[in-house]
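so my prof wants the structure for this chain in the tokens format not the other one, which i didnt know existed until like an hour ago. anyway here's the sequence
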Amino acid sequence: MKNVKVLGMGCAKCTNTLKLIEEVARNKHQEIVLNKIDDLQEIMSYNIISTPAVVIDGHVVHSGSVPPRAKVEEWFNP
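here's what i got, hopefully its the right format
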């Protein structure tokens, strides 16, 4: 099970990223722990420049935009 965090302060792009990840994980029958992080200090601890950002199992895998669906699908390939 992957631990996935979406970092951002609640903008539309952050919300869309969260929904996209939920949808792709569900479609691929992947169980994930998905958290929305809006605490500025925690976001800053990942040394990202812009949000939304996606962290999987402690590693930043994307930042600065809503990731393309194909990229999200790659994250959940077996």
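also thought this was worth mentioning. The longest helix spans residues 12-27.
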